Amino acid sequence: MKIFVIGAGQVGATVVEALHAEHNLTVIDLDPARLTPLAYRYDVATVEANGASRRALADAGVGSADLVIACTSRNEANLVAATFARIEAPRATTVIRTSNVEYIELWREGRLDVDFVVSSEIETAHAITRVIGVPAAVQTDVFADGQIQMVEYDVTDRSNPELVGKPLRECGRIPAQSRLASIIRRDSMTIPRGGDVILPGDRLVVVGSPQAAQAWGELLAPGGGKVEDVVVFGGGQVGVAIARQLLVQGIGVRLIEPDRERARRIAEELPDVRVYQATGLDPDFIERERIGQAQAAVFAMREDARNHYAATLARVHGIEFTIAIVHDAIAQEVYEHSGVDVTVNPRQVTAEEIVRFAHDPRTQQVAMIEGDRFEVLDITTSPTSEYVGLRFRDMPIRGAVIGAIVRDGNAIFPRSDDVLLAGDRVIVFTESSRVADVEKVL
Amino acid sequence: MTRSEATTRIPRPPRTAVGVRGALGLVGTLTKYLSVATLFPTALAIGYGEPAWPFLGAGAIAALVGLGLERLGRDADPIGFREGFLVVAVTWLFAAALGAAPYLLSGEPQLDRPVDAYFEAMSGFTTTGASVLTDIGALDQSLLMWRQFTQWLGGMGIIVLALAVLPRLRVGGRQLLESEMPGPEVDDLADRIRSTARRLWLLYVALTAAQALILSIFGWTGIDDRMNVFNAVAHAFTTLPTGGFSPQPRSVEAFSAASQWVIVVFMVLAGMNFALLYRAFVRRRGRVVARDEEARLYLTILALMSVLLAVELWVEGFERGEAAFRDGTFQVVSMMTTTGYANTNFVVWPALALMILIGVMLVGGSAGSTGGAIKVVRHLLLGKILRRELRQTIHPEIVIPIRLNGTVVDERTLRAIAAFVLLYIGLFAAGAGLIALDAAFQGPHISAFDAIAASATTLGNVGPGLGIAGPMGSFAPFSDFSTIVMATLMWLGRLEVIPVVVLLSRSYWRV
After folding, report:
1. What distances in angstroms separate CA B242 from CA A253, B249, B272, B321, B365, one per listed residue?
2. Contact A286/B397 with Cβ under 8 angstroms?
3. pTM for the whole thing?
4. A84 and A52 in contact (C-beta within 8 Å)?
5. In this predicted model, what pLDDT tens digit does every residue of B184-240 receive, in sequence order?
6. What is the extent of the structural domain holding B423?
7. Of B395, B399, B401, the CB nearest to A289
8. Residue B3: inside a domain, yes or no?
9. How far, in Å, are A174, A198, B152, B176 from residue A167 at the CA level?
């Protein structure tokens, strides 16, 4: 597939990283300092030009593109680039990144001439809400309208001993309706079989029903339960999007925003959120408002350093579960070393969302795990696939696991005797480098 | 420094920043139209064979004064926001003067002193219902009907005042109502007043006609043998404006239970926001009433207080069964909507019953109704402000916007409401103090409770007080000074205090 990526910032770079192996990429950006590292590292063409200029796009050869991704940080530039691309290459699929709610609404009404719109704020809010819904989880993605969840868990010393330290076939408590797709131990990944053992420090990838995902959470991090009180630090666009998503899930939200006008506006917009006008960095305030008694805290302020400080302070005051937005990739390591439970990088989440448009059209959804080392695909099997008609126990393992299938709209968690049929949607876990192979054989 | 050839002069500052001439011109126009109203009692007087010239004379004087003022303001600048306060304040003074003229010209001995006649007319046009008459039966039929009619006209003025003028002048948080106005969004004040008036007056007239018709039917069919067309119309004229004048010496006591219940229903309607009623009746969206926070609180207070009073009357042995229930409901509705009818002489009731009546007097009707006093919506928002203060004591940093019917109320409006309520309570206390002080020097002998009730009833435009000024009594024993104080309180209360107080400030008249 011939793909044009307009904008080589963090989102653009992540998109390039995920797509360069299988696709023919051209990256356009005004800043040579951003293009050069991409050109050195990957086999991509780079064009130093303004992506919002029709002539520049035409000169770069956008006319032959199959997919145009406009992912600069400027909403208007993205929209203009996509509009010009539509003129130059009427058959290409166009995707824009935007944080402008008006654009998203216009697009939903079908009045914006682009194929897909991806919003960092909304994707980030989704990612965080999913994690909070399953407190023990490092990451959660939902498939098939929420019937299937892909959840990543950390195994700790507190995890239920019936599950840890013995071969899987001897564990009696593995929840039904779920499949352990992989065990990630430091840098190696194993697709578990009956003889494998779960150890503390492992990271597990589980595909299962929402109930089963909850059960796994209970086993791996006992005493989690349902979340009712979440504190969101920072009332920017991301913070508000998170608060709104959490409310939709029926989770109570307290939000802390230092700016007076902004705090007032949020309180007017979201009547069910308790809004405080405070910095969140004041121990007296944290103590007085019993922030430590909240079940989880989300740090969505603009500066990584402030998020880090606030998260540490909140932990000191007793918050057990902290989730931080990370803007800079390096900050992610700092966060994780200092005990922040989950970090979410809005640009990565956005890139992940964008990447799925580059997949085989049969692929409905993609989730990335551990940066971009692994992917979970939601893909419809073709009638010519060599796997169709095989029982699951007879399928050769080639670094991929089918965690669940969707047949006639219902989720099925296959056992070894079940047979794969043509037209089934499969939720398959695999290493990123094998995605193209998996799409080919299915 | 360069200077243009033409000599430039800095103009002298105007003596006042308020277009007094223009304002008086508008008052003149309104007075001119109002003078036409005297034709109704004139026709009645001719029909009953009573002297018609007091009405014609009053009408002629009003028309002449109106035309004169209109001439005065002919070339004046168009009036705006500033002048609005002056127009509103002066219009009611002129209307009361017009109302008093027939009383004086008729030579009726109970009303032959200008102070008393003016009090009675002010009580009419402010739809209060307090009276200095001691023997109502002695008045001519036409004069009695004029008295009723002044309240009905006052009610029309109040609807426009409450729903179009005061919101524009941002009086005491009235801007809340601005969005509720039915009709097109027009920026011109005059256009807006016209379109509102047309729609709501139609509803007002229709409700008045409905009540008059129902009461007349009760009279014809014998359900109420004391009711006749004269009484039906007279009471319809003073129910919708929450006035409370009655041509009967003992208010509505003489009428049957059925008639009293009908009057209760129309009093409850009159105490509701007319814009809301318009939507419920004309646009057939009855659910707006059930969803409106103010209407819900209004009906809840009415129901709770009625039951409480009924139980109190029953327990104390004043009434039993339906009568206790009817008296309790009737009196609570009458006092809270600031109508002021009585179906029994409640001054003899026990202290708790009187406390309930004085309490609901201070609550008042809904904003946008013809009722007076503080208004339910201000109590509602004041309650929300207090609740927020309590929450902010515990959580100093919390940000809580206050909402009414789901819409955020801005902080300036809330401040205006708090200020209004304080001002109202202050005036109420000052009025009670002045009345008590004057009574101590010049008589009559009244209790502290009576002084408080007299102040609350006139400032709230209710009508009857307690003691000698009770529903079957009269305000006649009070001295001229107290009479003037109470007439002023009625005027202040009707105009929601602030437009009048504003006129007393220097900053109103200066640039």
Report:
1. 47, 18, 11, 27, 9
2. no
3. 0.78
4. yes
5. 444 555 666 777 778 888 999 999 999 999 999 998 898 888 888 899 999 999 999
6. 332-509
7. B395
8. no
9. 12, 8, 92, 70
Taking CB atoms and an 8 Å limit, are B403 and A271 in contact across chains?
yes
Structure tokens at B275: 């814009």
**d(CA B396, nearest CA chain A) in Å:** 8
Cα(A387)–Cα(A394) distance, rounded to whole angstroms? 9
- Cα distance between residue B384 and residue B377, in whole Å: 11
CB of A139 closer than 8 Å to CB of A131: yes
| Residue A400 dihedral angles phi and psi, to the nearest 5° | -145, 150
pLDDT tens-digit series, residues B356-402: 999 999 999 998 889 888 999 999 999 999 999 999 999 999 999 99
Distance, in angstroms, between B394 CA and closest chain A CA?
Answer: 9
Q: Which amino acid is residue B478, in one-letter code?
A: F
**Does B317 fall in a domain?**
no
Q: Quick check: is B228 in a domain?
A: no
Could you write out the DSSP letters of every residue in B74-137? TTSPPP-HHHHHHHHHHHHHHHHHHHHHHHHHHT-GGG-SHHHHHHHHHHHHTT------S-GG
Instruction: Give residue-wise pLDDT tens across range A13-58.
Output: 888 988 888 889 999 999 999 999 998 999 899 999 998 888 888 8
DSSP element (H, E) containing A174: none
Residue among B384, B393, B394, B399 with most chain A CBs within 10 A, to mutate = B399
Please, are residues A317 and A347 in contact by the beta-carbon 8 Å criterion? no
Q: Which domains does chain A have, with CATH numbers?
A: 2-118 (3.40.50.720), 125-220 (3.30.70.1450), 229-350 (3.40.50.720), 354-441 (3.30.70.1450)
Whether residue A97 contacts residue A118, with contact meaning beta carbons closer than 8 Å, is answered with yes
How far is the C-alpha of A241 from the C-alpha of A122, rounded, in Å?
A: 6
* Total number of domains constituting chain B: 1
A267 vs B395, B396, B399: nearest CB = B399
